[in-house]
């Protein structure tokens, strides 16, 4: 298993998000021992990138995937509106307080009853990340102006 | 009956809904920016054509990677198939392709089955087999 870091700083268009996803799959396939880990970690990255693209108000995102030993850290920063920053913190606080069974139940409930939001998301992303990372989500937000915040989400999880 | 053929892209699966060959396949990763918009032609096609499909038609979903927003859109597609099946008084089969060791994909099938109260047959297939199947069916159905 090889330690490695993949970083991207720049605009997050659909094309960049897709290329990054493919790159991370390739990196994971060559550096992560089990295929189940590859799927799990790439799914987490897909959700974090998807989320950032949906809610990024403007400017660059800062993304990093770091594998050191048995620990992988996936981190993303983007600018967002005050409402979206508040929603990010609420979502992370909610999923971090849930047990695995509660996360599964919340996921099923949202899948069955949820609707697509104004940004096109389904409200399932952070529940899924929490399930797949086994609860290791950290989020911070910092005001940049009255209506714009810097949002930082980080997931740290162990290879299984 | 009309067929719906949507070629695969880097972010969306190939979709082959072809009554003339009895092929109903979704194959490839699904991470579009707007999954609801991407799958709209599928739900519209199902609204038009589902009632005329023969008993025993098989819908096969092979989505090795998908975002959760895509999962919601696919859930709505499967829900539409279930409703059409009940309205037409026919039995269709939903096959859910899972690569080995992909527990979350198996769990997705289980969730769909439980929430929609519909049997979903989990089929194990590795990536190479899935790609070969897509290439063969794309050729057969003239998907460019």
Topology at a glance:
The complex is a heterodimer of chains A (160) and B (144).
Chain A (H helix, E strand, L loop, with lengths): L3 E7 L3 H18 L3 H21 L5 E8 L2 E11 H15 L3 H14 L11 H9 L3 E7 L4 E11 L2
Antiparallel strand pairs in A: 1-2, 2-3, 3-5, 4-5
Chain B lengths: L3 E3 L7 E5 L4 E5 L7 H15 L8 E5 L5 H21 L4 E6 L4 H14 L3 E5 L2 H14 L4
Parallel strand pairs in B: 3-4, 4-5, 5-6
Antiparallel strand pairs in B: 1-2, 2-3
Helix pairs in contact in B: 1-2
Please give a structural write-up.
The complex is a heterodimer of chains A (160) and B (144). A five-stranded antiparallel β-sheet of chain A has the order 1-2-3-5-4. Chain A has 160 residues and is α+β, with helices and mostly antiparallel strands. Chain A has helices at 14-31, 35-55, 82-96, 100-113, 125-133; strands at 4-10, 61-68, 71-81, 137-143, 148-158. In chain A, 48% of the residues lie in helices and 28% in strands. In chain A, helix 1 (14-31) packs antiparallel against helix 2 (35-55) and helix 2 packs antiparallel against helix 5. The mean pLDDT of chain A is 92. The two termini of chain A are 13 Å apart. In chain A, strand 2 and strand 3 (71-81) form a beta hairpin. Chain A has one domain: Histidine kinase-like ATPase, C-terminal domain (Heat Shock Protein 90, 2-Layer Sandwich), CATH 3.30.565. The longest helix of chain A has 21 residues, at 35-55. Helices cover 44% and strands 20% of the residues of chain B. Chain B is built from four helices and six strands. The longest helix of chain B is centred in the middle third of the chain and has 21 residues, at 68-88. Chain B is globular and about 35 Å long. Chain B starts with a strand and ends with a helix. The model of chain B has no long low-confidence stretch (mean pLDDT 93). The A-B interface holds A 14, 17-19, 21-22, 25, 34-36, 39-40, 42-43, 46-47, 50, 53-54, 107-108, 111-112, 114, 116, 120-122, 124-125, 127-128, 132 and B 10-11, 31-36, 65, 67-69, 71-73, 75, 99-105, 111, 114-115.
